[in-house]
Specification:
Distance between the termini: 13 Å
Number of strands: 3
Radius of gyration: 12 Å
Number of helices: 1
Strand content: 25-35%
Largest sheet: 3 strands, mixed
Order of helices and strands: EHEE
Helix content: 25-40%
Strand order of the largest sheet: 2-1-3
Structural class: alpha+beta
């Protein structure tokens, strides 16, 4: 929709160390942000949070910003 922006939050799976998972999720978020912005979407906020629990997975959540 016109004049809308999104927030991007990326996670990682729990394998590997905390620092590695944080970096991986940040790179994952950056790749999605690049794709979205290259296709005309405004990204308000982007974050890579690493693995939040032993059940975390390689996921990117995209939500409409308020």
């Amino acid at each position: 929709k016109a004049n809308k922006s999104v927030d991007v939050v990326a996670t990682a799976s729990p394998e590997g160390g905390k620092n590695i998972n944080k970096k991986l999720s940040e790179k994952r978020a950056a790749a999605v942000v690049k794709y979205l912005t290259d296709n005309g979407v405004t990204v308000k906020k982007s974050e890579g949070v690493g693995a939040e629990s032993k059940y975390s997975n390689r996921v990117v959540l995209i939500t409409l910003s308020k």
